[in-house]
Amino acid sequence: MTQLFLRRTGWLCVVLIAISALTFWLGTLVPGNPAEMILLATQSEPPTELQIRAKRSELGLDRPLPDQYQRWLSRAVRGDLGVSWTRSVTVTSLIVERLPRTVLLAAAGLALSLMIALPLGLASARRPGSRIDSACRAWSLVGGSLPAYLLAYLLILVLAVKLQLLPVLGFDSPLHLVLPALTLAVGSAASITRFTRNAVLDAMSQSHVRAAAARGVPENAVLRVHALRNASLPIVTMVGLSLAGLIGGAFVVEWIFNWPGMGTLAVEAINTKDYPVIQAFVLFSALAYVIVNFAVDLLCAALDPRGDRARASI
Asked: Cβ neighbours of residue 175 under 8 Å, at least 6 residues apart?
């Protein structure tokens, strides 16, 4: 476990540096002069050439690109991601304000998806080839194929407009969380349902599980104790990746429901060409995938020490 942790930590550092370099490089490719855009956003009159040169020098944009990256990385490590061009506040303060709301939405979406996916996946694996199995597989196909924006508008039409059960826009009450969380949950639940079914079916084909059934162990115990326990590692991996996807990919859903999270902030930044905020959002989304994947690796190693020893010997 210690060797795995050290090795994964080393790779995590390498990946994070590569992500930061790619994010910074993409930020340098954006059109326009950052110094001029900042001055246009912070003063009423068009900036002079002297003001633009002074601002470029202040931002370090007149330095060689490697020096700019080193300066940007040293600040990013300390939590300084620059200043928003349109809001004239630090990007870090915007993230600190919006991130908890995105995490709340992603956690609610993941909880709903697990409440839907695990029972359906187990029911499908219990009777492969049955009508229940066919219905669950059809649900997985349809739920995984629906675009988030289309599903969001369908849920709004049915639950908010027709039935008038839930509010649509805002962040005023817990009820405002239901529709965006449900929209996120459907696609994730479809993938986890399919993955749970396949993992449990694979576990049920193993010899010790069949032996337990042959000894007269009740079907529910065989399914939930023996098969589900052996299928837990791939399911945990899938759930971790789903969580990372929900955190990084919730911006469309947040925008539709006017949920004041990271996604809404990113869409507003794209509309106003606020590149420091866009850069921070790209970096944050990539970090979410990498860190969640790192945590899932360690969790799987803790759940299955034999796999840890096998990986350590590779």
From this structure: 166, 167
DSSP 86: T
Of residues 306 and 113, more confidence is placed in 113
Tell me 226's DSSP state. Answer: I
Number of structural domains found in the chain: 1
**Helices then strands (H, E): number in the chain?**
16, 0
The number of residues making up the chain comes to: 314
Whether the CB-CB separation of 83 and 89 falls below 8 Å is answered with: yes
pLDDT at residue number 144: 77
**pLDDT recorded at residue 77:** 79
Separation CA 282–CA 144 (nearest Å): 24
Own/partner pairs for 75-81, CB < 8 Å, 24+ apart? 76/20, 76/283, 81/276, 81/279, 81/280, 81/283
What distance lies between CA 56 and its chain's CA centroid? Answer: 35
Which token pair is 16?
């994070």
In a domain, 166, yes or no: yes
User: How does DSSP classify residue 259?
Assistant: -
Domain assignment present for residue 206? The answer is yes
Q: Report pLDDT for 311.
A: 39
CA-to-CA dists, residue 229 to 225, 266, 295, angstroms: 6, 40, 19
User: Each residue of 40-79: pLDDT tens digit?
Assistant: 766 677 777 787 778 777 767 777 778 878 887 888 778 7
Which residues span the domain enclosing 253? 98-259
Task: Answer yes or no: is 229 within a domain.
Answer: yes
Q: Is residue 281 part of a domain?
A: no
Rounded mean pLDDT, 78-85: 79
Indicate the residue type of 314.
I
- Residue 310: the pLDDT is 36
Check: CB of residue 111 under 8 Å from CB of residue 189. Answer: no
